[in-house]
UniProtKB/TrEMBL annotation:
Entry superkingdom: Bacteria
Record keyword Transmembrane helix present: yes
Annotated keywords: Membrane, Transmembrane, Transmembrane helix
Organism: Prochlorococcus marinus (strain MIT 9303)
Protein name in UniProt: Uncharacterized protein
Presence of the UniProt keyword Membrane in the record: yes
Transmembrane regions listed in the UniProt entry: 12-29
Length: 37
C-alpha cells in the first residue's frame, strides 16, 4: 500500500511540474516570440 501511495504522489508531483512547465512555455512563446520577433 505504501508503494502505491508513493507512486501516486510522484505521479501528481510530475503532473504538476509538467503543467507548470507547459503553462510557462506557452506564456513565454506567446509573449516573447510575438514581442521581440
Amino acid at each position: 500500500m505504501e508503494d502505491n501511495l508513493v507512486q501516486k504522489e510522484l505521479f501528481y508531483l510530475f503532473g504538476g511540474i509538467v503543467a507548470i512547465g507547459a503553462a510557462g512555455f506557452l506564456a513565454w512563446f506567446r509573449s516573447g516570440r510575438r514581442g521581440d520577433g
